[in-house]
Design brief:
With about 120 residues, the chain is mainly β. Helices cover about 0% and strands about 55% of the residues. The protein is built from no helices and eleven strands. The protein has strands at about 5, 10-15, 20-25, 35-40, 45-50, 55-60, 65-70, 75-80, 90-100, 100-105, 110-115. The strands form two sheets. Strands 2, 4, 5, 6, 9, 10 and 11 form a seven-stranded mixed β-sheet that branches. A hairpin with a 6-residue loop joins β4 (about 35-40) and β5 (about 45-50). The protein starts with a strand and ends with a strand. The relative contact order is 0.33.
Length: about 120
Amino acid sequence: QVQLTESGGGLVQAGGSLRLSCAPSRSIFSGNDMGWYRQAPGTQRELVAAIIRGVSTSYADSVKGRFTISTDMAKNTVYLQMNSLKPEDTAVYYCNFRDWTGDYWGQGTQVTVAA
């Protein structure tokens, strides 16, 4: 089992910024994928951003140019920098760790963007 500790959510005004952090209990390495997903009330969980095999990144069209996913290997932490936030970014954000043993999820952190 992999435990994921998330932090950084909160309430922010539209146009503001937040940075989410996720620290897995297992070391991040090139063989696994890390990602951030979000789920708003009444919607399905969707991919926001991901780092694939530690090399390539992928973003939802709705966040391209505003969000950046990154990894600090020394701190074993993955970040999601969110800039120019919009009310439609309001959701619970979940960290995801995926390797050969399975798919693991954080408990979620609430992000609320006020208009």
